[in-house]
Design brief:
This protein is α+β, with helices and mostly antiparallel strands and 331 residues long. It has helices at 71-84, 121-133, 149-157, 195-201, 208-215, 260-274, 289-297, 316-321; strands at 13-22, 28-40, 44-48, 53-57, 61-66, 89-93, 96-100, 111-113, 140-144, 161-172, 187-190, 220-227, 230-240, 243-251, 279-285, 301-310. The protein folds into two domains: 7-66, SH3 type barrels (Roll), CATH 2.30.30; 70-331, 3-Layer(aba) Sandwich (Aminopeptidase), CATH 3.40.630.30. 24% of the residues lie in helices and 36% in strands. An eight-stranded mixed beta sheet has the order 9-16-10-15-14-13-12-11, with helices on both faces. The longest helix has 15 residues, at 260-274.
């Protein structure tokens, strides 16, 4: 019986080992196919390699598995995510990116270690601590856990406690499952985040720095759904390169379980494709089971995880100045 190639793998890179013939001595010869899974039936898997699209006979397959993202791919996607959520201020210590946005959102007020800092680690941490202290902020790292596992382990040894584990989920836009978005729902798209939009996104409203962050992108779109004149669902999309970044998908409590989030996601995906995006990413808290389930159903999978670690020497005042928000999960 051939290995099972799951429908949940569609859009992901896989490696398939298949029988390609027999040698002169009668031994079975195998060959590997590596590429994105486009479709799978009971008998055939269609795989897009770097050079061609192949239909692989499943009866010839010996093994098959998903190829997990490499450290280089994780860091490349983190850089794309950085471009999609742009802070007011940024700095660098070698390959570390320092971000500050007056405390609004963890994502925009943390260190992203894309590359080595270029100086001894303790020296780099001290320099980063001073940079954030000047802005009244705690020193917090956003750490892609596998790609930067040595740094993560070092901070653990120093007593930096972890918080807010986050999935970065991705999808290939041209092979998303058929959407079950409601056809009777109109999703409106606009180029700016209105005050009303921001109020639904973050209850109680947002500071000016938060509104500016949302609008600080030259290829951003803001989706919204109204029912009986009331704003009940929103979402934000940005395009960087061939990536669509989706964030701030929110539904008013009174309007949940009506498929509105699915409608918003579908509209953002269509907009992304029309603006040159071929892939999509979003960020969601790993313990937000309903959101993770929704995104998996819509064709997304976990590309990698990251977590935040906070400097134990940060003062309570600094820590209180940081404002975690729903955007930290992009949901």
């Amino acid at each position: 019986m051939p290995p099972v190639i799951s429908n949940s793998w569609i859009g992901r890179r896989i490696v398939v080992r298949r029988v390609v013939g027999r040698g002169d001595d009668g031994r079975i010869l195998f060959g590997d196919v590596v590429g994105d899974l486009l479709t799978v039936t009971a008998s055939t898997a269609r795989i897009e390699t770097r050079s061609e699209v192949l239909d692989v006979d499943l009866s010839h397959v010996a093994t098959a598995k998903v190829v997990e993202a490499s450290a280089a791919e994780v860091l490349a996607l983190e850089e794309i995510c950085l471009r999609g959520w742009r802070p007011e201020e940024s700095g660098e210590i070698g390959g570390w990116v320092l971000r500050a946005n007056d405390g609004f959102t963890m994502r925009a007020n943390t260190v992203l270690p894309l590359k080595p800092p270029g100086v001894p680690l303790d020296e780099a941490i001290a320099e980063a601590r001073e940079w954030y202290a000047k802005r009244g902020l705690p020193l917090v790292f956003s750490i892609p856990t596998e790609a930067r596992r040595l740094l993560d382990a070092h901070l653990q040894e120093l007593g930096w406690e972890p918080s807010l584990d986050v999935h970065v989920m991705t999808a290939r836009l041209d092979v998303l499952p058929v959407s079950d978005a409601r056809f009777d729902i109109e999703v409106q798209l606009g180029s700016q985040a209105s005050d009303e939009w921001c109020t639904l996104y973050k209850a109680g409203g947002m500071p000016p720095g938060g509104v500016a962050l949302l609008n600080r992108h030259d290829r951003a779109i803001f989706a919204q759904v109204r029912l009986e004149g009331q704003l009940v669902a929103i979402g934000r999309g940005v395009v960087d390169g061939n990536w669509l970044g989706i964030s701030a998908v929110e539904v008013a409590p009174s309007a949940r379980r009506r498929g509105l989030a699915t409608s918003v996601m579908s509209a953002l995906s269509q907009w992304g494709r029309s603006n040159g995006a071929t892939r999509s990413y979003l960020q969601v808290m790993s313990d937000n089971a309903p959101a993770v389930t929704l995104y998996r159903r819509l064709g997304y999978w976990v590309h990698h995880d990251y977590r935040y670690r906070t400097d134990p020497d940060s003062t309570p005042r600094q820590q209180g100045h940081l404002q975690p928000g729903p955007d930290d999960a992009g949901s």
